[in-house]
User: Which sequence fits this backbone?
């Protein structure tokens, strides 16, 4: 029986914010593993025209995950797009019935997770690990977590550590200008440069 954190996203590209979330959640919740879960296509936004292929995003995600001892789950890349979290966690909990899963989110996503497609399935299948912020919004985040527990029967764990604020859009803009963003792991930047991505 394992305790596993699930970190979903487009990973376009994977950056230090993702790594920070994985490391801090694993430490705080004493997880046995963290799995990065790259999606095929997010349901809530269109991907930029120069987005690398799913195979290239998967390769970058594997490189990034290796730097923090995390693993990569390819499930969403094998399913029809768009990628829905409810479907993903339902399948994973069926495949690994003895494991306990946490879906890792930032505080911004925590505030809207009840509006995700079939959020009841998400709350039934997994716990929610949310990186709390140390700012004026901390009280509202705690209050929303309590609302989710009472009204949606969600199991929410707040991780008391400030998230690393990283903009994927800014990273891609820098890459298009030939600049190496400091928020990128070196191995990911090397892969991007070798493949000529985001140019």
Assistant:
């Amino acid at each position: 029986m394992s305790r596993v954190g699930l970190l979903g996203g487009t990973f376009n590209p994977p950056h230090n914010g993702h790594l920070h979330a994985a490391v801090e959640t694993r430490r705080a919740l004493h997880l046995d593993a963290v799995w990065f879960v790259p999606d095929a296509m997010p349901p809530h936004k269109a991907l930029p025209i120069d987005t690398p292929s799913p195979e290239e995003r998967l390769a970058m995600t594997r490189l990034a995950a290796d730097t923090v001892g995390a693993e990569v789950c390819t499930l969403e890349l094998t399913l029809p797009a768009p990628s829905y979290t409810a479907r993903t966690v339902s399948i994973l909990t069926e495949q690994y019935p003895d494991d306990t899963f946490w879906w890792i989110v930032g505080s911004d996503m925590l505030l809207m997770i009840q509006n995700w497609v079939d959020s009841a399935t998400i709350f039934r299948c997994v716990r929610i690990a949310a990186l709390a912020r140390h700012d004026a919004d901390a009280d509202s985040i705690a209050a929303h977590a309590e609302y989710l527990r009472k009204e949606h029967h969600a199991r929410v764990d707040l991780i008391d550590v400030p998230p690393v604020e990283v903009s994927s859009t800014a990273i891609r803009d820098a890459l298009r200008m030939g600049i190496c963003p400091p928020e990128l792991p070196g191995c990911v930047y090397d892969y991007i440069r070798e493949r000529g991505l985001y140019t």
Q: What stands out?
A: The longest helix spans residues 138-152. The mean pLDDT is 94.
